């Protein structure tokens, strides 16, 4: 008789080896070095977003002193940096802390089933290179794969799309051999990707047109933080790093609060800055004056005003109009104008996908995400031993990831200290009013909001987007909460008071 192959068990399984996953691994092994863990990465490389996207000019629109980790100073003089430098930073950090040795590539989590009797998850994993499926078990799942689909971007229906004789490209799948030099390029979109692509292509393309249906708020920012660089020279990297972070966190918070509290004043200020960057007589209100308030959607940052410079130098054009149809040679607009194009880039956004599309079950019952409520923005009501990482939409993503990871490791310490092996959030008021998980007007969020968990009307069930509040909630306050149910396998439930 053959002996069944034993199923591997890990204390913590981290899903994703990008920015969030590497951060989660660092905090876990720092605070719980005795725990076994692995990072499962569906792709063939670490880095997540920063390895996936290969379009020209790709960069962060948050400063790297806050977008980087609190435990790893950003040492490059450019605080707004491109993907190559961000990747070097991420991979260097993973290597320095031995995290890269825990990554298992080509490993996509398909499903996870929780057993309360055994107090563990059984996880089904598919090899993306061979299709083979295996299983392993873990005490905790930490989902760190972001919130959008890696295998496809969003492209709306365009009438006549099949007629276009040129090349149609989505930035999420930029061909390595695409050469736009000397070609007429139309970039459809007005978000961060579009405002990055346009100046990057304008240097060599015959013409570049950013075609937008609705303008976005666009602000020039310095690519280098001169004060930060001076502090680093005077104090050294290690001592300067926390000071620079605090400075940039405070600056970002003040900008966001100003936009929220005084939207009309903020709108006028942004328009004034834009007008100074653009040629005299430029129709600023037509192309750079959105109908919504500042920070209802994310502001687009352009390092050293490169988009505006390309417009001033007549190397790029912005057109605000609606598409009637694609033609054989370009795009026909409602105004009657036709934009000729050899290449059309659909910088039209992302497709959201909660938890990487993993199907969860708890004691045989499928988890319906829209029926759950997010606890502290990191766990789901009724789902034991599952944590997830979703960062800020109004600030540097990583600021929240660090706080969530710290809270996660403190929660593990509490379980260890009291002999518990599982915990799940449960609202004390089952009739608590709920609303969408993200209060964000961006199209990619609104298209998928019905697929996401909900948030409540009070803490700890609110999805906080305020760093100062989260420092108190996640770093300072106790992990003990009357809305957490702590249990021991095989024992009666115990509710923390």
Task: Please supply descriptive tags for the structure shown above.
alpha/beta; 497 residues; FAD/NAD(P)-binding domain; nine-stranded mixed β-sheet; five-stranded parallel β-sheet
Strand composition percent: 15-25%
Helix content: 25-40%
Largest sheet: 9 strands, mixed
Number of alpha- plus pi-helical segments:
13
Tell me the CATH superfamily of the largest domain. Answer: FAD/NAD(P)-binding domain
**CATH architecture designation of the largest domain:** 3-Layer(bba) Sandwich
Instruction: Label the overall shape.
Output: globular
If you consult CATH, what is the topology of the largest domain? Answer: FAD/NAD(P)-binding domain
Average per-residue pLDDT, rounded, comes to: 92
Q: What is Rg?
A: 24 Å
CATH hierarchy class name of the largest domain: Alpha Beta
Counting DSSP E segments of at least 2 residues, the number of strands comes to 28
Describe what this molecule looks like in 3D.
A hairpin with a 2-residue loop joins strand 19 and strand 20. The protein has two domains: 286 residues, FAD/NAD(P)-binding domain; 188 residues, FAD/NAD(P)-binding domain, CATH 3.50.50.60. The longest helix is centred in the middle third of the chain and has 25 residues. The chain is built from 13 helices and 28 strands. The chain is of the alpha/beta class. The strands form eight sheets. Strands 1, 2, 3, 4, 5, 6, 19, 20 and 23 form a nine-stranded mixed beta sheet that branches. It has a five-stranded parallel beta sheet with strand order 8-17-9-10-13, covered by helices on one side. A three-stranded antiparallel beta sheet has the order 14-15-16, with no helix packed on it. The mean pLDDT is 92. It starts with 8 loop residues before the first strand and ends with a strand. It is globular.
